[in-house]
Amino acid sequence: MRIGIVVDSTCDLPESYFKQHRIRIMPISIRLGDDLLVDERNAAAARHFYAEQISSKGVSAESIPFSAEQIQSVFLQRLVIDYDLVFCVTVSSKHSPIFENATKAAFGILKRYREVRAAADVPGPFSMRVIDSKTLFAGTAVLVAEAAQMIEKGANPNEIRLKIDEMVPNICGYMVPADLAYVRDRGFKKGVRKSWADSMRGMALTFGSALSMHPVIKVHGGEENPATVNRSYEKSVRKMLEHVAERIRAGDLISSSVCLSYAGDTARVQWMPGYTELEAAAREHGVALHLATMSATGAVNVGPGCLFVAYAGKLIPL
Fold first, then answer.
1. Which residues on neighbouring strands pair with residue 262, listed in sequence order?
2. Which CATH number is 56's domain given?
């Protein structure tokens, strides 16, 4: 059986990883003043965004996810021909309508795929499974990396489904925003569902004027809450990365990888406090580390310089 994966562009994996595993990306458009950026994990576009756009236009940016009709078109154009089963993994439905739109699209896809496959002389049925990751960014990446690895090893669809179902409630994500003032100024968007920016802004306001404080934000079970707070960005990053290294060494992971994303030049991450220890722990225990540039869609909500790390496994307080 030919098994494929589709994700939205907030899934933070390296561009090379998407190409290697033929993972299809559903772009998200971002309106930045008079500019319209199509966020489709393009490295050159990401560099331009971080260098020229986020600082001046990110606070007021508006994201435009794929509609149900656009998702249906993506599947019917190629995916129902290229694959017999597709796992469609989306960012948390709490913060985006993408899961809802993909679920609606699935009804039309499953009604129309037969005529498309017949025209292309592709026999047999097609099926798809739409999955709400209930997490964000590098957290979604952990699920997708696991599924991609299982597909590469020849796992059957039921094994993949069961593994994803096991992992979803156990995705542990942590992030350190570099600039709470940016998050505070990002503000609320009226008339739309609660966004990641809303949650982050609430946390920024909770810390009041103490913007020199840098919280580590826990993302787990569809909720985001401060896990701990330190007086510098560096201290919070060290605490976060060393905590994940400890989880690896303690055998608390049920995922074969740890994913990280950074809102900026990822070359900086290897010099951050705690990264060397995380890298050593992963190497010693055969855990893959995937470091990616954070999507423009994610970065406009959490600000430049934000570092996010995620794994699937036991949740232990920092």
1. 293, 307
2. 3.40.50.10170
Give pLDDT tens digits for 2-58: 999 999 999 999 999 999 999 999 999 888 888 888 888 888 888 888 998 888 787
Q: Each residue of 133-187: pLDDT tens digit?
A: 999 999 999 999 999 999 999 999 999 999 999 999 999 999 999 987 777 776 5
Q: Is the same domain home to 151 and 208?
A: no
Task: Write out the residue range of the structural domain in which residue 45 sits.
Answer: 3-168
Statement to judge: residues 113 and 195 lie in one domain: no
- Tell me if 303 sits within 8 A of 263, measured CB to CB: yes
Contact 110/28 with Cβ under 8 angstroms?
Answer: no
The Cα–Cα gap between 200 and 281 comes to 30
pTM here is 0.92
The residues, any chain, with a CB within 8 Å of residue 302's CB and separated by 6 or more, are 175, 177, 183, 196, 197, 200, 263, 294, 308
Kind of pairing, strands 85-90 and 3-8? Answer: parallel
Q: What is the 3-state secondary structure (H, E, C) of the chain?
A: CCEEEEEECCCCCCHHHHHHCCCEEECEEEEECCEEEEECCCHHHHHHHHHHHHHHHHHHCEEECCCHHHHHHHHHHHHHHHCCEEEEEECCCCCCCHHHHHHHHHHHHHHHHHHHHHHCCCCCCCEEEEEECCCCCHHHHHHHHHHHHHHHCCCCHHHHHHHHHHHHHHEEEEEECCCHHHHHHHCCCCCCCCCHHHHHHHHHHHCCCCCCCEEEEEEECCEEEEEEEECCHHHHHHHHHHHHHHHHHCCCECCCEEEEEECCCHHHHHHCCCHHHHHHHHHHCCCEEEEEECCHHHHHHHCCCCEEEEEEECCCCC
Q: Are residues 47 and 153 in the same domain?
A: yes
Tell me, yes or no, whether 132 and 240 share the same domain. Answer: no
Length of the chain: 318
Alpha carbon distance 245, 48 (integer Å): 33
